[in-house]
Amino acid sequence: MLKICQKPLPQTLLSYIAFRIAFRETFESLSLHKRCLSGEFVPYGYLCEVPFLREVAPAVQLDLIASTWHKHLSREIHQADLVEESVIYAACELSARLIEKEPESVVRLLSGGPLDMSFPLDSYLARELRLLYLELPNDGDFLLVSQFLDLDPEDAIDQKLQMGIDITRLGPMFDVLGRWHAAPGMSGHLKGLLTEVEITRVATILRVPCLA
Question: N or C end of the chain: smaller count of CB under 10 Å?
Answer without folding.
Answer: N
